Amino acid sequence: MKRFDCMTKLAARLENELVILSLGASVDEWYNAAPHMREASLFQQQLGCVTPQAFGLAAGLPERQIVSLDTDGGLLFNLGILATVGNEKPKNLFIVVWDNEQYQSIGGPKTHTASGTVDLAAIAQGAGVKHAYTARTLEDFDAHCEAGLAAGEPYIVVAKVAGTVQPEIKRKHSDGREDKYIFVRHVEKTEGITIMGPSEHN
Amino acid sequence: MQQSAVDAVIRGLRRAGVSIVCYLPDSLFKELYPALDADPDIRTIQVTNEGEGAAICGGVFLSGKRAALVMENSGLRASVEPLARMGLGAGIPVVMLMSYRGDMGENNWWAVPHGITMEPVLQALRIPYVVEREEARIEQAIVDAYELAYSSYYHTAVALSGSIVR
């Protein structure tokens, strides 16, 4: 199962959601797989921060569906967030974990899931996230996206994907600061709120 | 903490517009956490480590709500990675309120590292901070920390010490 194909399936189901996603090649893949979601996606380069940030966003915007696109390496970096999500049970957080069993962006050294003994979905279930599944086929993944986006409670799908990157995709040129401004302005526009407002005159 | 100091913290958070507090409980702020839990205008989220709390606070910032990360100052060390990446990499601010273990008067050997490392770590991350030891200064210090964080889009910190937490 290829991550890019999974992203294409997920992207087709998204319209008004907000997305926080992880680092590495998955950033450029998502940029291409979901061009209509570019402003609604925060592209971060932060191992261990993705699902916590998505949960914080979900807590701040409880009426908005939030999607976390995390990774095996990123989630393993901070497994504690699963216990927090299990306790807090946000109604609007759908978590996808791209599990390619490797640290792809630095050339492919294995992560702990490569051993076959570490089961992220089982860890999530043990942390109290009842809906935590592993998907190994595109059809299965797509079905979990449909269910997870409508679940009304935390839902995690660990997508077992190949360690390949979609060839000839357009690279994203913006950095973390520009990405943040783009994302914040999109949230402001779609929520009708001010997050980063004008300075005082004094 | 005296009840009056707890009240001052909550007044400051309210004036700053804080509606979500992430915390990992500690001993010096022992009385503060249940008061935050009981406050009808504040949602508390207990986290497994302070770095996770920092990242959650970053997500709350992106929602337009205001969050605080409340912790012992040892939690600053646990938060350095997300703070560096969010603050220096993206300009996503986190406002921290921490108890100052290891300050003058510390009576536990295990807390000494917290005092030795707190200010150098804050300075290494270029995080503006104040250390308050007088209860009368708590409320305004918290308000001021939010003003600067939302002007600079960078982290700020308030450390409470002395008679406030003893």
TrEMBL record, chain A:
**Annotated keywords:** Decarboxylase, Lyase
Q: Which SUPFAM superfamilies match?
A: Thiamin diphosphate-binding fold (THDP-binding)
Top-level taxon of origin: Bacteria
Q: Which GO terms describe its molecular function?
A: carboxy-lyase activity; thiamine pyrophosphate binding
Give the record's GO biological process terms: small molecule metabolic process
State whether keyword Lyase applies: yes
Q: Is Phosphoprotein given among the entry's keywords?
A: no
- Identify the residues that the record assigns to the Thiamine pyrophosphate enzyme TPP-binding domain, covering every copy: 41-158
Entries under InterPro entries matching the protein: THDP-binding (IPR029061), TPP_dependent_decarboxylase (IPR051818), TPP_enzyme_TPP-bd (IPR011766)
Instruction: Provide the protein name.
Output: Thiamine pyrophosphate-binding protein
Q: Which organism is it from?
A: Pseudooceanicola albus
TrEMBL record, chain B:
Q: Which CDD domains match?
A: TPP_PYR_POX_like (cd07035)
Lineage top rank: taxon: Bacteria
Q: Which Pfam families match?
A: TPP_enzyme_N
Please give the Gene3D superfamilies that the UniProt record associates with this protein.
3.40.50.970
Q: Which InterPro entries does this chain map to? A: THDP-binding, Thiamin_PyroP_enz_TPP-bd_dom, TPP_dependent_decarboxylase
Q: Which residues form the Thiamine pyrophosphate enzyme N-terminal TPP-binding domain?
A: 5-97
Q: What is this protein called?
A: Sulfopyruvate decarboxylase
